[in-house]
Amino acid sequence: MEKITRKVGVPGLQQTTQHEARFRTTVSRRRGAATLDYVLLLGIILPVAGVLIGAGGWIMRVFYGRLAVLLSWPFM
Known about the structure:
Blueprint: H1 18-29, H2 33-54, H3 56-72
């Protein structure tokens, strides 16, 4: 006996799988996110990195001074 299968749905309408539907919702949720990534990079990350690089010498001097105090205080 042959098993009869039939397609359910509207004729001419393409059926999407669960994976395709999930992919489409992910893409639509990420729309415009690249622009926000650039704004975050240019407006926040680069200025913070510039300040840290500029203050790097001062931070190293302070750290070295504190380390020298911690290592030398038992011998004073």
